[in-house]
Automatic annotation (TrEMBL):
<dbReference type="GO" id="GO:0016491">
    <property type="term" value="F:oxidoreductase activity"/>
</dbReference>
<keyword id="KW-0521">NADP</keyword>
<feature type="transmembrane region" description="Helical">
    <location>
        <begin position="34"/>
        <end position="56"/>
    </location>
</feature>
<keyword id="KW-0812">Transmembrane</keyword>
<dbReference type="InterPro" id="IPR051019">
    <property type="entry name" value="VLCFA-Steroid_DH"/>
</dbReference>
<keyword id="KW-0472">Membrane</keyword>
<dbReference type="Pfam" id="PF00106">
    <property type="entry name" value="adh_short"/>
</dbReference>
<dbReference type="InterPro" id="IPR002347">
    <property type="entry name" value="SDR_fam"/>
</dbReference>
<dbReference type="InterPro" id="IPR036291">
    <property type="entry name" value="NAD(P)-bd_dom_sf"/>
</dbReference>
<keyword id="KW-0560">Oxidoreductase</keyword>
<keyword id="KW-1133">Transmembrane helix</keyword>
<protein>
    <submittedName>
        <fullName>Uncharacterized protein</fullName>
    </submittedName>
</protein>
<dbReference type="GO" id="GO:0005783">
    <property type="term" value="C:endoplasmic reticulum"/>
</dbReference>
<dbReference type="InterPro" id="IPR020904">
    <property type="entry name" value="Sc_DH/Rdtase_CS"/>
</dbReference>
<comment type="similarity">
    <text>Belongs to the short-chain dehydrogenases/reductases (SDR) family.</text>
</comment>
Length: 344
């Protein structure tokens, strides 16, 4: 491809001397042809430098998520810690890790739900469990968690706990917004930072460990009407990528997951489909690629969405914003209508 430039120059010089024309008049007569050559070179450059590695990356991700066996995580340590583990994606991580023989420490708000999930895991997978009931919207819980986890051989930490808005809404109009936004940041970000502070030093000492951080597609670009939620997820992306780079040489895998919709309480989607997987299907797909990918959508369709959003952000930065807006505005309108009907 680099050969195009000297080749074109040679052709021009040869023509100049054979027709006894000035360089300028020849260039002017060949202008359309030169444009075609220039456009072709740029197109070939873009395909080789950008598209082929991207397509290779997408194909590689699909291969891992479809065909790789789920690794034996026990070799990283005896226990897995999962935050927000009584429902949805967190519960699915806890069950899948237990299925592979890990003992599980479950952290969530409601003690009775924790005890139910723990009993179910112990009975089904014949592993040990511990439960810690904590509210991650509080900041005074970490000393207790530190004490409870002290001295345990932790191989995997899943920073999954998260909360969102009750429904998409303008920043200043979110009901009880001051408290809601404080809770969102404390639950989605402070929990991840503090749980990592508690668990990572021992992992670094033994030079192995896996930290799985749950972000969201909405962390990849600003999201109108879910602005604070999306901002907390952008923090997760930045935090995880920085941490991965700091601790790669110390044997620690930091795996960032940016899912699209999964059929859970948070998304409010009850029926799973090929674009909205069940939490179990999503987690199995993600665990297959933990050792191979530092950042993934977690599920094949969500990988494509991640690449699509990146592409839009790069080519037309405001287009992803508009797509989000047109998707969320009707959901907001429907939620407000329902609220009004209830008040009648
Ligand atoms: N579902 C999706 O479509 C989707 C998409 C992108 C990203 N994500 C991310 O994936 C993660 C899990 O989402 P999910 O859909 O599985 O959520 P979910 O079904 O609502 O489950 C949330 C879990 O977190 C616990 N929890 C919530 N608030 C808590 C608090 N303040 N303190 C302690 N525990 C708390 C809940 O337990 P209790 O009920 O016992 O409190 C529950 O076990 C979140 O980080 C979310 O942002 C989800």
């Amino acid at each position: 491809m680099i050969g195009f430039v000297p080749l074109t120059a040679l052709v021009i010089i040869a023509e100049c001397s054979s027709r006894k024309m000035t360089l300028f008049s020849l260039l002017m007569s060949k202008l359309p042809l030169l444009w075609v050559i220039f456009a072709s070179v740029i197109t070939v450059l873009v395909v080789v430098v950008v598209a082929i590695p991207k397509l290779f990356h997408i194909a590689q991700s699909l291969f891992y998520q479809w065909f790789c066996p789920i690794p034996q995580f026990k070799s990283y340590g005896r226990w897995a810690v999962v935050t927000g583990s009584t429902d949805g994606i967190g519960r699915a991580y806890a069950r899948e890790l237990a299925r592979r023989g890990m003992d599980i420490i479950l952290l969530s708000r409601s003690l009775s739900k924790l005890q139910n999930v723990a009993a179910e895991i112990e009975k089904e997978f014949k592993v040990m469990t511990r439960v810690i009931d904590v509210d991650f919207t509080r900041t005074d819980i970490y000393e207790r968690i530190r004490q409870e986890l002290d001295g345990m051989d932790i191989g995997v930490l899943v920073n999954n706990v998260g909360m969102s808005y009750p429904f998409p809404e303008f920043f200043a109009e979110v009901p009880d917004g001051d408290k809601k936004f404080m809770d969102l940041i404390t639950c989605n970000n402070v929990s991840m930072m503090m749980m990592t502070r508690i668990v990572l030093p021992a992992m670094a000492e033994k030079k192995k460990g896996i930290i799985i951080n749950l972000s969201s597609l909405s962390g990849l670009c600003p999201v109108p009407l879910l602005n604070v939620y999306a901002s907390t997820k952008a923090f997760v992306e930045s935090f995880s990528r920085g941490l991965a780079s700091e601790y790669k040489r110390k044997g620690i895998i930091v795996h960032l997951v940016t899912p699209g919709y999964v059929a859970t309480n948070m998304s409010g989607i009850r029926t799973a489909s090929w674009v909205v997987p069940t939490p179990e299907k999503f987690v199995r797909s993600d665990l297959r690629c933990v050792l191979h990918l530092t950042h993934t959508g977690g599920y094949w369709f969500h990988n494509l969405l991640v690449e699509g959003i990146r592409f839009l952000n790069y080519c037309v930065p405001s287009s992803a914003l508009w797509i989000m807006w047109f998707q969320l505005a009707p959901i907001r309108a429907k939620a407000l209508r329902k609220q009004k009907e209830k008040q009648k």
